[in-house]
Amino acid sequence: MEISAANLTALFTGFDVIFQRGFEKPPSYYEQIASIVRSGSRQTTYPWLGRTTRFREWLGNRVVQALEAHAYAIVNKNFEDTVGIDRNDVEDDTYGVYEPVIEQLGWDTKVHPDMLLFSTIKTAVNTPSAVLGYDGQAFFSSSHPVGPMGSGQSQVANINSGGSGAYWFVVDASRPIRPFIFQLRREYAVTRMNTLTDEAVFNRREFRYGVDGRANTGVGLWQLCYASNMDLSNPANYGAARAAMRSIKTDGGLPFGALSSRKGVYLLVPPSLEEVGRQLLNSEFMVGAGASSSVPTSNIWRNSADLIVSEYLA
């Protein structure tokens, strides 16, 4: 190919098409379980996390409820992924060898928010002190404070670490405020360095095609996610996790209401628990520890949640 501005523009426009093809292929889940927040600065603070209210009969003047303020903040991070393209390959018409790499770049861009989010969830159970929630406790903790400040508080757990298997998670993402946050400061965008006067072309004969964005993930309402490493093949453990979530109350003493809606409820599992998760949520009859050896037992947890399998939880 003759190296000219027009030919380089046409070549990189073709790369854009290939990038988009890769971007459209993989599934993505972060939008289903995380609140998407547009950030307008280096970091964003969430003072409203954890605030709960309750209705009362209106007698006399309104009563302004005293709510504990929190200062949970998420700091944005910069991310990039860049491919170098040798000028000689363009001149010799062998630039087609880069097409799979460009397509993979599109794929990686699509799944990067998932990678960030599920890596945060994994860290939250493996290194609890590294992922703190708005209440100052580890996001997955056995001692979340609930109730009025002072002697009226009690300790509530959103994790059961009494087993020895891989962790799985019950998530209620049915509300405007979800258990996780994906904070976006700047959209992921492609940048081309495809001019002959570019310094990298001058020094190394290298054109560049890259993507960058600015974002981060964090945690929201711990009351809407429960982690467990108990044996998922025993449906009773799944039922116990749901029961624990449903028993959580607000600081005002009323039911928090987790899992009150079927829509937006998910079971998150690593690949090692995919088969068990599918059986639990899809089988007509109980399997595993909940199955009868003689008479089939109806699976009461069928369709109780949607399954999400992520390799980033492994």
TL;DR of this structure?
This protein is an alpha/beta fold and 314 residues long. It is 26% helix and 25% strand. The protein has one domain (5-53, 65-313).
Task: Describe the structure in your own words.
The chain is α/β, with parallel strands linked by helices and 314 residues long. It has one domain (5-53, 65-313). 26% of the residues lie in helices and 25% in strands. The chain is built from seven helices and 13 strands. The strands form four sheets. It has a five-stranded mixed sheet, covered by helices on one side. A hairpin with a 7-residue loop joins β5 and β6 (154-156). α1 crosses α4. The longest helix is centred in the middle third of the chain and has 28 residues, at 99-126. The mean pLDDT is 91.
Search tags:
26% helix, 13 strands, alpha/beta, 7 helices, 5-stranded mixed beta sheet, 4-stranded mixed beta sheet, 314 residues
Write the layout of secondary structure elements.
Elements (H helix, E strand, L loop, with lengths): L4 H19 L6 H4 E5 L4 E4 L25 E4 L1 E10 H5 L7 H28 L17 E3 L7 E3 L2 E2 L7 E5 L7 E14 L5 H6 L1 E14 L5 E4 L6 H12 L18 E5 L4 H9 L23 E4 L5
Parallel strand pairs: 1-9, 7-11, 12-13
Antiparallel strand pairs: 2-3, 4-10, 5-6, 8-11, 8-12, 9-10
Helix pairs in contact: 1-4
User: Averaging pLDDT over every residue, what do you get?
Assistant: 91
Specify the biggest β-sheet: 5 strands, mixed
Strand fraction equals 15-25%
Number of domains: 1
N-to-C SSE string, H for helix and E for strand: HHEEEEHHEEEEEHEEHEHE
Secondary structural class: alpha/beta
End-to-end gap: 45 Å
Give the overall form: globular
Mind telling me the C-alpha Rg?
25 Å
Give a count of the beta strands, DSSP E runs of length 2 or more.
13
Helix tally? 7
Strand order of the largest sheet: 7-11-8-12-13
Uncertain stretches of 5 or more adjacent residues: none
Can you give the helix content as a percent range? Answer: 25-40%
